[in-house]
Amino acid sequence: MKDSIRTLHPEKKKGVNISKEKYEVIRKAIIATLRTNKEMTFMALSRAVEKQLDNKFEGSVMWYVTTVKLDLEARGEIKRVPNSRPQLVRIK
Question: Which class is domain 16-91?
């Protein structure tokens, strides 16, 4: 895959190769959303990113949000709030 990135996983599972361009679009949307809202459930974050991209993204936004969120956790850019149900995420 041309210009791809291998994602990381916070539990050291095998990551996936995805388009660097799509990764950056989703990453920027996740970070911007969390900066505005501070802390959100994973589902609320996914819906907010989907709304922000407003059908201008080719592919499953939910799959990419899940994949990039896990990568950002593994890289220490965002974190899960411990013991939160449903899962809450925020910028680290």
Answer: mainly alpha
